[in-house]
Amino acid sequence: MTDKILKKEEIEKFYLDLSRYFNFFAPTKENGNIVFKKITDPCEIIFDFLNSKVPPKEIVFPRMETLFTYKINGKEIEIEPVNNLNEKYLIFGIRPCDAYSFNLLENFFASGKFQDDIFIEKRKNTILIGMGCNTPRQTCFCTSLDHGGHPHRMDDVDIFLTDLGDKYLMRSISKMGKAIIDKLAWLSDAQRKDVAKAVELSKKAEELIKTKVDLENIAETLKPHFDHPLWKEISENCLGCGTCAFLCPTCTCFDVIDENDHYNNRGKRIRLWDTCQFCIYTTHASGHNPRKSKIERCRNRILHKFSYYPKNYGMLGCVGCGRCIQSCPVNNDLRVIIHKIKNLEKEKIEVKIIAT
Amino acid sequence: MVILMGNIQEENKNIEHSMKEVAYNLLKNKEVDLIIGYAKGTIPLSSSPSFIINQKDVDNLIWDNLCHVNLARYVVPPITKIIDNENIPLKVGIVSKGCVGRSLIHLAKENQVNLENIKIIGISCNGIINRKRIEKELGEKEIIELSVMNSEIIAKGVDFVKTFFFDDYLNESCKKCKIKAPPMVSSQSNVIVGGSVESSSGEDDFSDLTEHESKTPEEKWQTIVELLSPCTRCYACREACPMCYCNLCFVDQNKPIWFGKTTDMSDIVSFHLVRAMHVAGRCVACGSCSSACPMGIDLTFITRKLEKIVKQRFDFTSGLSFDILPPMMTQKMNDKEDFMIGEH
Description:
Chain A is α+β, with helices and mostly antiparallel strands.
């Protein structure tokens, strides 16, 4: 066992040692919201946080990202790739649900026939230092997920921290994590009682998660209900905004646009977050929209996460972070939606009128 | 200032009770096919717009200081049912606080709503709690229960109880609101329940803008940029706005692209300022945009200034009457044009 102790007063040292090699991202406060940002001063780090408003996926998959720039010279087009791909990133304090979501991002960007070089490079250069949740939110339901979601799940990070009050118990999980800890020779060894306390905190955190969402065989349950009136019911108060998707750690859709600088014969190709909740997401050039109302769009969000995703990648497309529940302006609670879906088997859902 | 008549919680309960009764009777007597109201949220500080067609479900309706969504947003385009291949508009009863009623009147003037199909279940509103501000001030402490008692908002967590003074923690737009219940425009469509329908009198008070107005253009710009910097372009503000009913928003136009869709500050600011200009003289200051914003941006900071300009230049307050045409729907020879080049 190579567990170490990082005292909270040693964070500055920890930061100084690691920020020489990495862009050091940590939870900090901006406009009253917790965000993962590159910090330049360890004083900016917020240690006592529930979770960030926008998930840390934005570090490897930003809201706006330049794919390449180009210059136009007559009929010649010269493409210049983005050249900051060698940068190294370290995400300090990523929560287990968000760390797990990186696997889902990899499924989308880094598997199959078409792979995303930019994401792959960035992900390869990113170290995750996870931090267990001692006080999960009321809306958290990671333990309901079949991947073994847990407020202290360690599998998806390089180094895992458990907050013991005045210090962190530090455990290396990956080879890279071990290499980093080995370099920080000044870290003290953990005592047996520290490890025991971490185990206790982990158990306590698990008990604190009161939300249980029944996701067993959800993909199977959804299969025969593509045209069920339930979709009308769950979409009727939906505003059609992108809050749920933009704050979701597993949503990966993006739009690609060219920003043309006509006067200087140059431009850049940019990708921006997009979401299936927007009406123009599926609008064809002809004007036809196969997902013409919010019924189809709400349905797509649920089916994608709980039916298509399991079919394509063998796992659910949700990590149980509860951000969509927290921030939906009309409180269209995912837990309630799943509960209604699970009830489809048991009872006949009343047909209701919908707002379009 | 919010004038409170007695206990807020008690007043809300009374309103809720009468509202349910009215809604029940409207459905029972088949005066409406559908009631749009608010249901209890699943998490503290929330409420959920609810669509009710059965009398038995009327009991799910609630009324409290967290019912923030402007329900007028759901009736444009009109809710219809298909009978014999024809779209027949439904008769809809809408639980309406002052700003919802004003929205409906304004939307009717813009020919978006046919008030003949709408029953305005008018209720008197004490103001909506600024949940984003409370959340931000509590920082990383999770609220488990929120209640209003006398003139205080009480937030309870696992290991804390914090109280906030009700008047101070209302949405900014509610603090200055004088129109608590829907204006009576036609006795046919208004069913006012509970509370007082009297609007507090007196001049509109724009003193909250004084500080910003005294700033230099550079400082003003800086304030706007800082205000909008957390924006993720999720468009919750637009989608929550009853006046943003365009089939295709200017920012979604892509043949050609009119506006940058990026999260570059220049694009974010131009989106919000242009959207604000589009709701000038139409905005009813419901604060729905601010309540919807997941990042907690107070967008009414921008629309508030427009409200003042419209009031001062055109002596117009939106959604108050049918007789006066909104300034953006009319043109008069003596309209002030001192913003035009050459008049300075």
